[in-house]
Amino acid sequence: YHIDRHNPFQSIDQAKDCHSKISARFGNDLILWESEVAYSAKQLIDPLKILMTQGKEDTVCPPVFAEEMFATIPSSNKSLVLMDNIRHEPFREPENQVFIDAVTDWLGTNS
Description:
The protein is mainly alpha-helical. The chain has four helices and two strands.
């Protein structure tokens, strides 16, 4: 099928289908990348300011994974924003204003 990059609503519906089907090679790569990301998260120290956003409806990367990673970040200036009705790709969500507001508010207080 064709994904129309100019129609985010079409992409959301089609992304639901493609996220449940990945190749074994890509699955293996994801597992390898996870350990790299986990290691890198522990290197994020002061004075670095960190914002993590996570959709509560994300079935690709469930919120518990973001919460666990957030807990490992040693920076004292970090924020985790969990958003209702947001899935894996917040920019593509039809009701993404909560995501935009969270990022805008964080940038306003941390710039």
